[in-house]
Amino acid sequence: MFYKDSKDLLEKTKSAISISPDILRVEDKAQVKAKLIDELVYNLCLNESLEVKDSCCWMIWELANELGIFPASIQGLYQAKGEQKYSKITVPAVNIRGLTYNVARALIRTAIDHKSLSFVFEIAKSEIGYTFQRPAEYAAVCLAAAIKEGYQGPLFIQGDHFQLKAKNYSQDAKKEVDSLKKLIQEAIQAGFYNIDIDSSTLVDLKQDSLDKQQWNNYDVTSKLTAFIREIEPQGITVSVGGEIGEVGKKNTTPDEFRAFMSGYRSELDKLGQELTGISKISIQTGTAHGGVVLPDGTIAKVNLDFEALRTISRIAREEYAMSGAVQHGASTLPNEAFHHFPQTETAEVHLATEFQNIVYESKHFPGELRAKIYQWLKDNCAADRKEGMSEEQFIYKTRKKGFGPFKQELMDLPQATREAIAQELKDKFAFLFKKLNAANTEALVNKYVRPTRIKKSIPPALLNLL
Questions:
Q1: Cystine design at 106: which of 79, 84, 163, 422 (Cβ 3.0–4.6 Å)?
Q2: CB-based contacts of 291: which residues, under 8 Å, 6+ apart?
Q3: Are 29 and 73 in contact (CB under 8 A)?
Q4: Integer Cα distance of 52 and 465 in angstroms
Q5: Distance of CA 435 to the CA centre of its chain
Q6: Nearest of 232, 201, 65, 34 to residue 140 by alpha carbon
């Protein structure tokens, strides 16, 4: 059901919620969970009216706050890990590219079942583009999923790989940095209180010293850290991540990490006294985003450098009071790899492609829609087909780009279909919570994370109707 305008929205929600210029109140919680939240999500994602989208986004934010759900920074938890107050827990960070509401609900149901608060919703800069999910929408859908499932507490939402392009930076460094600042500001305003800066693309391995190789990286990371500290909401210290090894490229060494941190801390000190720095560091250990796809469409085995994770995580904690290293591109690793992450004190793992694969390859996913999406990819993404690439490799590498153009078709799938796919995802999430020791963390998170309620101004279109 589409709302025609804000007046129609207000009329059709008045039995469940009441709105004044100062506050939104829940009048019928059962009605909110049973029907209203679903309708708000549908309109937020698909309504053509920006006025209606803005109103739905605001309503979801305020509903979440009223029901005890708060976008939060994981900084306190990671600071505690840096101070070695807990160990052997790795936080799963999940990128959701499509069927976002249903996937987010599955993740939250899993967290509730396993008494966990230590998980992160995230979306990368590139994913924001091809999945047609701006930060405000993504954050609101995650909050809506939490409302639907009866979750309470802090909800960690993260900007993943907020990345600079080396080519653009070489042509106009200020323009490229300013563009990323704009995205960071948009994300923080939307409730992304965790931001991973990725200027590892600027590392120049041709330089003759580690400091020179990392210079652009730590210079940009320090400036963006200072920018985040300027704009973060009062009462919230945004958790900031850095990156020193571009995923899919050369493996990271401890000496590279120390060179980056030495330069980063020096530059950050110049920008402001006692500015809080990064809480974690992403490194390269042998993985690639989505895995290395073989001609038959299967994924090549990866020789993951767990010792690099162990050593750099230890250095991060002992020398810099950071939580540790972050592993990207982990979702397509074999199941037997995951228990190593908490054992090596890896702070966080980023997971995306395997969940996408489960959606597309589910026996419940309609074959006609899958064929339609794959044909669209062949017609519209031909430029992504590299020489010698098989049909299976091309589809595997590009099907992530099908989620945006087919967003409505996916959201319009029968509820039973979406729930069946979500159950398959839930089984995978449950496996990850167990292997990463991310279960039974409610007390730990509540001890170190103090959510702050951030009130947002009511949209003018709604205010004018009151």
A1: 422
A2: 299, 300, 302, 329, 332, 353
A3: no
A4: 13
A5: 20
A6: 65
Which residues does residue 19 pair with via DSSP β-bridges, in sequence order?
24
Give the predicted TM-score (pTM) of the model: 0.95
The H or E element that residue 241 is part of is: strand 239-243
Q: How confident is the model at residue 398 (pLDDT cuts 50, 70, 90)?
A: very high
Residue 296 has pLDDT above 80, yes or no: no
157 sits in which H/E element: strand 153-163
Taken in order 144, 434, 157, 48, the sign of the CA dihedral is negative
CA 32 – CA 453 distance, rounded (Å): 20
**DSSP per-residue codes, 33-51:** IIIIHHHHHHHHHH-S-HH
Beta bridge partners of 92: 349
Residue 3 in 3-state DSSP? Answer: coil
CATH class name, domain 69-359+422-448: alpha beta
Give the Cα separation of 53 and 241 in Å (integer).
Answer: 30
Above 50 in pLDDT, residue 164? yes
Lookup result for tokens 């530059």: 267
Report the mean per-residue pLDDT for the chain. 94
- pLDDT confidence of residue 162: 97
Mean pLDDT, residues 397-414 taken together? 97
Provide the CB-side half-sphere exposure for 257 (13 A, CA). 27
| 17-19 vs 24-26, strand pairing mode | antiparallel
Q: Are 119 and 440 in contact (CB under 8 A)?
A: no
DSSP symbol at 299? B
C-alpha 403/C-alpha 463 separation (Å) is 34
Collapse the DSSP code of 153 into the 3-class scheme (helix H, G, I; strand E, B; otherwise coil) and give the result.
strand
What residue segments make up the domains of the chain, in order of their start? 6-67, 69-359+422-448, 360-411
Mean pLDDT of 243-248: 71
Tell me what the mean pLDDT of segment 187-211 comes to.
96
